[in-house]
Design a protein that fits this description.
This protein is of the alpha/beta class. The protein is built from 13 helices and seven strands. Residues 49-137 form the Reverse transcriptase zinc-binding domain.
Length: 329
């Protein structure tokens, strides 16, 4: 800046700053009056800082309309046939003012912000409605039940009779029900196990990889893995369910041994059955065995071998329209 002429030195500006910045600097007016330098608070008309002016300035973004307002027409929600409470909840959800723990923690200290359902992550709106495994499974089950009811209603209209869907049912109190299935491809099988208690809560899940050349042997391997895990956990009252009729028949009928590839496996399972008198081996339809079927497909795709932490179980496992409530990490 040339003080004597009260103007900017264009040569120094061009050498120091890019052209765009230099042009912006040249727009600044230089007053010929010489004044002492001092700090000014620009949000205040007087230039003097005050608590009131700071508060008002901090609220500008809150009360100033967005330059790019959302194109969503909220009138379509307010005028809909939804319950008024649901309308208000949707509005709060979109505007991120649902009083979850993470939100409340911004207003006053919250000692524990962990999710009430899974206890794994902070209870935020995104976690509750997008990532929480408990909420995800409940949503999937709700949609599955609605789809099933709709399908049954259509079947009743088309066939003139009410069809009964065969779905998974919980075991008696103090019993454990083990649903098993296998995914078989190119000589490799993945045996999936899903343990549930009388509340329908998943207590254990695993998928084990085997080399196998026969589908019945693959299903038998899954049942055998279930027996091993039941004995390992010392569970006396158990129901083992499979959608492989041949394997269950070979296990329960001693006069039949099945295919030669599955015969040694069937014999091992019978030994477990002899030692654990209360164990029951039952055949169920595929509709009642969706959970292990989905888990086996997932294990085959991910090449997973071993125990699966409950909070990492894929959402598709909860599509059996049963009672899929997790019980622990």
């Amino acid at each position: 800046m040339d003080v004597r002429r009260c103007s900017w030195n264009t040569e120094i500006l061009s050498a120091t700053f890019p052209l765009e910045i230099s042009q912006e600097i040249l727009k600044i007016h230089i007053s010929p009056e010489v004044r002492a330098k001092k700090l000014l608070w620009s949000p205040s008309m007087s230039g003097i800082f005050s608590t009131r002016s700071f508060y008002l300035h901090s609220q500008i973004l809150r009360f100033t309309p967005s330059p790019n307002p959302s194109p969503f027409n909220w009138n379509s929600v307010w005028n809909s046939f939804l319950h008024n409470r649901l309308k208000l909840f949707l509005w709060k959800l979109v505007n991120n003012i649902v009083p979850c723990k993470a939100r409340l923690n911004l207003l006053f200290p919250v000692l524990d912000t962990s999710c009430l359902f899974c206890n794994f992550h902070s209870e935020s709106v995104d976690h509750l409605f997008l990532h929480c495994p408990y909420v995800k499974q409940e949503m999937v089950v709700l949609v599955s039940r609605k789809c099933r009811d709709h399908w049954l209603a259509l079947a009743q209209i088309n066939q003139g009779e009410r069809l009964k869907a065969k779905i998974w049912t919980p075991p008696p109190e103090n019993w454990i029900k083990v649903s098993v299935d296998a995914a078989f491809s190119n000589g490799i099988s993945f045996s999936a196990l899903v343990f549930k208690d009388s509340n329908g809560s998943i207590t254990f899940a695993a998928a084990y990889k085997h080399t196998c050349l026969d589908p019945i042997a693959a299903e038998s391997l899954a049942i055998l893995e279930a027996c091993k895990e039941l004995e390992k956990q010392d569970i006396c009252l158990a129901i083992i369910e499979s959608d492989c009729l041949n394997a269950i028949t070979f296990i329960n009928v001693s006069s039949q041994n099945g295919s030669w590839t599955a015969a040694p496996l069937i014999e091992k399972i019978r030994r477990y059955k002899h030692r654990w008198k209360e164990w029951n081996f039952k055949f169920v339809s595929r509709l009642a065995n969706i959970a292990p079927h989905a888990l086996a497909k997932w294990a085959l795709f991910c090449n997973h071998d071993g125990i699966i932490p409950l909070h990492l179980i894929p959402t598709s496992v909860f599509c059996n329209i049963g009672y899929p409530l997790l019980v622990g990490p």
